[in-house]
Amino acid sequence: RKMTTIALLAVVTLLLAHTTLGMSFAVIGDWGMGGRAGGWMTEMRSGDEVNEVCKKINCNFTLSVGDNIYVGDVMRGLQDSFEDMFTSPGPFFPSVGNHDNIGPQMEYTKKNNRWKFYQPYYTRKMPIDDTGYTVQVFAVNTMDGGLGGGGQFTWLENELKNSDARWKFIF
């Protein structure tokens, strides 16, 4: 069981996208095990790779697809795994995973201007570059059941219908 847990926790997804119009971003998930302080080699390698690639392609932002912080002390985990590991200067938009304690993560939004976890589900629109085009991100909460026709589904449907962003990412 311990090896299975370690193997599952070590899974890190990295997806980089780059368009010719000047927008680039990183997507990660399953990463907050304590960073260098926790000695998690896979997290350290992933953090170093994201930082290196984002520096090369000038990432506009990072999306985190959940399971952001696994450690019990979420604020310490955010310090060790987010602040100390991911140094790309753009905003970091997390979404809820099944291992996330979201209360402290939302509170952390008030303390760190790069961390943008406003609510259990939310949207933000940003300029892509100087073309006038925008990108809009929609962080959904798959843990509350609201995407199956409930309030969150209605919210998402309305937000998408009213969005004028050139690019829309649901995560």
Structural account:
- There is one protein chain.
- With 171 residues, the protein is of the alpha/beta class.
- Helices cover 34% and strands 19% of the residues.
- It has six helices and seven strands.
- The strands form two sheets. Strands 1-2-3-4 form a four-stranded mixed sheet, covered by helices on one side. It has a three-stranded mixed sheet with strand order 5-6-7, with helices on one face.
- β3, α4 and β4 form a beta-alpha-beta unit.
- The longest helix has 17 residues.
- The chain is globular and about 45 Å long.
Summarize the entry for a quick read.
The chain is of the alpha/beta class. The protein has helices spanning 2-9, 35-38, 41-57, 74-83, 102-108, 151-162; strands at 15-18, 24-28, 61-64, 92-94, 122-127, 134-139, 167-170.
Detail the topology: elements first, then pairings:
Layout (H helix, E strand, L loop, with lengths): L1 H8 L5 E4 L5 E5 L6 H4 L2 H17 L3 E4 L9 H10 L8 E3 L7 H7 L13 E6 L6 E6 L11 H12 L4 E4 L1
Parallel strand pairs: 2-3, 3-4, 6-7
Antiparallel strand pairs: 1-2, 5-6
Q: How many distinct helices?
A: 6
For the biggest β-sheet, the strand order reads: 1-2-3-4
Stretches where pLDDT falls below 50 for ≥5 residues?
Answer: 1-20
Anisotropy-based shape: globular
The run of helices and strands is HEEHHEHEHEEHE
Number of strands: 7
Give keywords.
171 residues; alpha/beta; four-stranded mixed sheet; 6 helices; 7 strands; 19% strand; globular; disordered N terminus
